[in-house]
């Protein structure tokens, strides 16, 4: 169930309006732009400026394809227009074109190596596409410029989480909250970190504070659902994840979490289509494979269950209680030695249920 650890970090991201200063500067300071474009003729510079500003208007209206068209016109007029590359990258990012956004941010940086905002935005894309080391490198490149930004510290924390460095992530999230106690993203992501470290009281405090600040923060709603589920309150947990899904209806982590809760509430027929959709949207989610395995166990089908559990193991062997469930499936097939080995591994990882099963069946 606990795929929140990925879901929280990827979903609770910095909003576009906070991604940097230069986008806002160009929106607010219009007339000096023609002075900056000194490498072009006055008419070409004016045309590039006008296309750029039209792109900004469309970006703020969330008309991303139109924004991209205007920024492209600006770049045609002025091929070294770093800000147009950056803002076109923002439009592509919001239009779910990660590769296009990455390319545009890189072009902005190549055109202006001191363009801190483009480094920041490129780090965002790299983190979302699995290049955590590259994202961290971009963030470290602009540390002096951005270290006192709460949004920068939030993203830095996210990078360290992806790189399995919880101590540094904690420092960054703490700094983000210190800089702005109302930073919902930092509170949400720090809560996820606390949860992963089994610091449930602290996770609860951050989750509840985030929801006080923004009751429609879907990641925080999902967090609260998981905290309630951990306490065994599956009915209330279901209500929170359904609120998260009302905001992000097709989010694969939320779909899987709801499926897990429905299994806990003895509603396997309702759970199955949700976990199947979750896997269609993200086949690499180990937690969803475990949930599907649990569905098969509930239907007394240990063979298909083990197939799913083993796939989860390949993707992420640290999934909570995975080896307990693997052992359960193996025992149901009459493979006692394999079951005992699975429970031994679970016990080594601190799984109390695996420890109890091993004590009963393997002594």
UniProtKB/TrEMBL annotation:
Regions that span the bilayer: 19-37
Sorted UniProt keywords: Membrane, Repeat, TPR repeat, Transmembrane, Transmembrane helix
Swiss-Prot/TrEMBL TPR repeat ranges: 48-81, 82-115, 150-183, 184-217, 218-251
One Pfam match: TPR_11
Gene3D superfamilies membership: Tetratricopeptide repeat domain
This protein's record includes keyword Transmembrane: yes
Keyword Transmembrane helix: yes
Name the UniProt record assigns to this protein: Tetratricopeptide repeat protein
Annotated organism of origin: Spirosoma flavum
């Amino acid at each position: 169930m606990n795929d929140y650890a990925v879901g929280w970090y990827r979903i609770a991201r910095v909003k576009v309006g906070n991604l940097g200063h230069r986008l806002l500067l160009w929106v607010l300071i219009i007339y000096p732009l023609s002075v900056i474009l000194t490498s072009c003729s006055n008419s070409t510079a004016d045309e590039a400026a006008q296309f750029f500003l039209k792109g900004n208007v469309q970006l703020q209206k969330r008309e991303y394809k139109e924004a991209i068209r205007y920024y492209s016109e600006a770049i045609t007029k002025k091929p070294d227009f770093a800000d147009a590359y950056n803002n076109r990258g923002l439009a592509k990012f919001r239009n779910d074109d990660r590769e296009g956004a990455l390319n545009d941010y890189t072009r902005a940086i190549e055109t202006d190596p001191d363009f801190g905002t483009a480094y920041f935005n490129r780090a965002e894309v790299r983190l979302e596409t699995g290049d955590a080391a590259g994202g961290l490198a971009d963030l470290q490149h602009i540390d002096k410029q951005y270290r006192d930004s709460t949004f920068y510290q939030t993203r830095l924390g996210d990078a360290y989480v992806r790189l399995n460095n919880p101590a540094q992530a904690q420092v960054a999230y703490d700094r983000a909250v210190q800089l702005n106690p109302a930073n919902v993203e930092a509170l949400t992501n720090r809560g996820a970190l606390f949860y992963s470290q089994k610091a449930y009281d602290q996770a609860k405090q951050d989750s509840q504070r985030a929801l006080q600040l923004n009751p429609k923060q879907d990641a925080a709603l999902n967090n609260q659902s998981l905290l309630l589920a951990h306490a065994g309150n599956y009915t209330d947990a279901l209500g929170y994840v359904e609120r998260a899904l009302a905001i992000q209806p097709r989010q694969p982590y939320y779909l899987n979490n709801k499926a897990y809760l429905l299994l806990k509430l003895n509603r396997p027929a309702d759970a199955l289509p949700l976990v199947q959709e979750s896997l269609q949207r993200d086949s690499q989610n180990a937690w969803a494979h475990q949930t599907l395995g649990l569905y098969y166990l509930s239907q007394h089908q240990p063979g298909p269950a083990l197939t799913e559990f083993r796939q989860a193991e390949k993707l992420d062997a640290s999934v909570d209680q995975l080896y307990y469930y693997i052992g359960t499936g193996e025992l149901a097939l009459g493979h006692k030695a394999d079951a005992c080995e699975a429970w031994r591994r679970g016990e080594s990882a601190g799984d109390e249920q695996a420890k109890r099963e091993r004590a009963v069946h393997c002594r």
